[in-house]
Amino acid sequence: HLSWAVRRLSPDQHTPPVRYRHLVAWVLLYALVWAVGGLLLFVVVGAVHPLGPEQLPAIVGVWATWGLTAMLLFSFVPFGLGVTELTLTTLLSPFIPVDEALFVALLMRA
Asked: Residue range 66-88: average pLDDT?
């Protein structure tokens, strides 16, 4: 079914077949990259404000939510123009003070 959709949507009729194991491998790799990004955010937030290990899943969720929001809603704003930092600050504010959340958002942007 997936190969049919790729052939149907592709302008090039010589598209290589898409195998499910390759698709699953790429999805798992992409999920791993997002998890590592969330772990990096956890480390940066922990350097600014102490966090317990029980907050790791929530911070990874913040990272994923921020990335998805930035991709879907703010892709039309050139360079984000501060909107992405404001979003990350807002998402982090339940866990750390707002000024520290803004600092972390700016660090993650750099």
From this structure: 78
Alpha-carbon gap, residue 15 to 27, rounded angstroms: 20
Residue 90: pLDDT band (50, 70, 90) is very high
Is the sign of the CA dihedral 29, 30, 34, 37 positive or negative? positive
Dihedral Cα 35, 36, 41, 43, nearest 10 deg: 120
pTM over 0.85: no
On whether the CB atoms of residues 78 and 58 are closer than 8 A, the answer is no
Contacts of 22 (CB under 8 A, 6+ apart): none
Q: What is the DSSP letter of 74?
A: S
Is residue 81 left, alpha or beta, with left meaning phi > 0 and alpha meaning psi from -120 to 50? left
How would you classify residue 80: left for phi > 0, otherwise alpha for psi between -120 and 50, otherwise beta? left
